[in-house]
Each structure stands twice: as C-alpha cells, then as structure tokens.
Amino acid sequence: MKTVLRALVATALPLLAGLLAAGCGTQTAPASTRLALKTFQAASTVVGQPDFVSSAAATTQNGVGDLYGDAGLIGGVFYAPDYGNNRVLGYLNGIPSSNGAPADFVLGQSAFNSAAPSSTAAGLDQPQTVFGAAGRFFVTDYGNSRVLIWNTPPTTTQAPADIVVGQGGFGTSLQACSPSGMSKPESATATASKLIVADSHNNRVLVYNSLPTSNGATPDLVLGQNSFTTCALNDDNQDGAADAAPTARTLDYPTDVWTDGTMLIVADAANNRVLIWKTFPTHDFQSADIVVGQPDMASANPGAGAAGMGWPYFLQSNGVQLFVADNDNSRVLAFDTIPTGNGASADEVLGQSDFTHVTQNDDNQDGVADATPSARTMYYPSGLLLTKDALVVADERNSRFLVFRP
C-alpha cells in the first residue's frame, strides 16, 4: 500500500492508556510498566505463518496478506487486522503462544477463504488499526475512508458494525476534505471520552471530544490544518499548496496517533518524524512541542542511526516508553523514556543488530537481504501493539505478526 501511496502523494493500547491517564502521570508510571526488550532479540511467536522462515501471503484461517495497522487486545481477545484480505482475524484466547495458530472468527468476511472488499456494515476494505475504548470496538477502514464502531467488541464471524464515522452511513466510501468526511485514514485511537483519527490523505488529525454515537459525526478540533476544509500537506500559510518545509503545526501524511489523555503523539510519516504535544491540544492548528526523528521542526529528511527515521509508520507507548515502527529502515525503535527534547536517540532496536544497519531480512547483518526472514528480522514493519508483557509487530512484506516478549 505504501508504494501506491508514494506514487500518489510522492490503540491500540486504549485500555492501558486509560488506566495510565486516570492513575499514573505520563512519565511517572512504575518501572514494572516497562517492557524490557533487547536489541536484535528474536520473536517468541509468529502469527500468520507456520514458522519464522515463511513469508507467503494467504487467505486462510492461519494465514494473512499484507499487513498495515496496529493489532488490538481487547477483553482478552486478540484482533489482527489483515489489510491484504479485507478482514480482521479474531483469536478468542488472546495473543497466540504457538506459531501458525488458527483464528477463531473473522470480521469483514463470511468465511476465512474470502477476501472481497465491501462498504456495508459487515464489510471491510483494507482495514488497518483496531482498538477498544469505553467498552466499544473500533476499526479504521482505510479503503472505505471511514472508522467503524461496534458498541460491543465482536466475537463472531462477520458481526456488523453499529456506527460509521467519516461517511454519512453504511454503503458509501467517498473521500472528502470536509468536517464530516475522511480520506484514507490509516489509524486512530481513543480514550474513554475522545476519538482521535489520523486522517492520512487529508494531512490532518481529527479530534472528537466525545465518542461518536451516531453516523457521520463531526469532529471538534483539527491538527495539521486551521480549518476542516483545508487539507494540503505542510501548508503553514494555508494557501492550499505545500510549503518548502514543515513546521511545528503542519503534517505530511500522518499515519498513527497515541494518547494517554494528556500527552498526544503523532507519527508524521512523510515528514520522517514523530511529533509530541506535551499536553493535549485545545485549539485547531496547534503546534507540537517536540519532534523526534529530526533535529528541528523544519527538517524532514529520511535518516537512520539512533536519531533518524525513514517513514515512521506506526507507534505505541505505555506512558513511559515509546516504540516506533521505522518502516523504511525495517526496524522498530525503542525509547526507554518518552523524549523530552528534539532529535532524541533511541535506546534499543528490533529487526537490526545496531542503529546503522537498515536492510530488510538481514539476519547475518551483511547489508544484503537474505533469502528468507528469521525470528529477529523484519521487512517494512507496519503496525504495533504494546501490552504489559508483549510487543506485537505487523511485519508487512513478510505477511506475519511477530510477538516479542522479555
């Protein structure tokens, strides 16, 4: 999908986040909250493949296609968005502990061997991030330019959604730069009282100050733009054209969002950076406070090393650490503390043995892609789920989810 997007345009931890917001300050969570992963460690389990050296896409009960977006663990059920097959797979017993485990149910399709896109209440078209909040279940349905809401997390095949946001009703998939419209949203998250959407093709983040209860809800606040009808990338002067450089308040293809109710973190993918608002924004077009992946707010060059990023696609936090799926560098960056200044360096890296290697599926770290993946390599990581005892990485081109445990 990213290749197509570049040709065109050049929370998934909500339950834990809610607990942190209610009882623990942003960077004062106990040390036990930390997930202690080591650089270049091997994954313990693979989902979507029978073993760590396989990478073929499949439309089966055990297989997946291309992957984009954050998986979810909601009410003990593991939800795995399968973008390439227009479906979400459900595992009733949580994150699988054995390789190649079969799913128990599927959303968006009537059977495990079907993959047709649909814009109905029971259909999906390239679903990405899934998450839960306030007892409800959410899916960003990228191909249909909408976010779907189930009033109760579904546990049966093809259960229909109850509410659609981004469209006036079910059955449509219009792209719009408008107050109630969306254009290809890649991800979203929610607290008990807010819905935040990365409206990617519209180069903006939408904030709903209450969780929508009816179709076609309109947001209350927009970031990246100064109104709900302007959508150009990096358009600080809001003249409808991209500026030469980004600023602290512009966006170029935002792809993921995370919040604990106080802090807001946004993956600004095409600007090769992550933006942090230290306190939750209260007005349109508000400037971010901190940039990660770049030395300053006016830079956007892709990079590597411990402080660089290349298309930082998805991110997760537990209120203490920050994890970033650094897609073009085929790695996941881990920051032991949430950065408090511009250009911060990561502390650990998964998918590579150090911060200078960036080749996909390069287990022997010779700078050349190997013939097969391994338990510790990646090929364009494109989604993250962080729990108290695991990090789940959507490994896009290897058509698999990697489960890392301390």
What secondary-structure arrangement, pairings included, does this model have?
Layout lengths: L1 H8 L4 H10 L21 E3 L24 E3 L2 E6 L4 E5 L13 E3 L19 E7 L2 E6 L4 E5 L12 E3 L21 E4 L4 E5 L4 E5 L12 E3 L30 E6 L4 E5 L4 E5 L12 E3 L19 E6 L4 E5 L4 E5 L12 E3 L30 E6 L4 E5 L4 E5 L2
Antiparallel strand pairs: 1-24, 2-3, 3-4, 4-5, 6-7, 7-8, 8-9, 10-11, 11-12, 12-13, 14-15, 15-16, 16-17, 18-19, 19-20, 20-21, 22-23, 23-24
Q: Under CATH, the topology is which?
A: Neuraminidase
Poorly predicted regions: 3-30
Q: Return the average pLDDT rounded to an integer.
A: 93
CATH second-level architecture: 6 Propeller
CATH class: Mainly Beta
**Radius of gyration over alpha carbons?**
19 Å
Proportion of β residues? Answer: 25-35%
Helix coverage percent of residues?
under 10%
- Give the oligomeric state: single chain
CATH superfamily descriptor: TolB, C-terminal domain
Q: Which structural class best describes the helix and strand composition? A: mainly beta
Count of DSSP-assigned helices: 2
Number of strands: 24
